[in-house]
Known about the structure:
98 residues; mainly alpha
Amino acid sequence: MTTSVQASAGLATRVTNGVVAGIAGGVVFGALLAMMGMLPVIAMLVGSSSAVVGALVHLVISAGLGCCSPSRCPRSGPARCWARARPMAPCGGCSGRC
């Protein structure tokens, strides 16, 4: 029988992975928002009507959500936790077992 030991990643690594995952998801969803013409609406959050500003705001929000994810679900990668938890719930879907 083999025993596997999984090393726990440090907080900086988890946050970095979360930011990368958040931006990756943000790029995909941002493309959809661009096709629907919704980026100027997002830009209104900062008082602009530019689609470029809307894309930047959207990516900042995506990175922020990704950054928060690993700190709520520290024992696994962000993809597994995001798949099991609701984005704004404090790891509620994981029940702390991520």
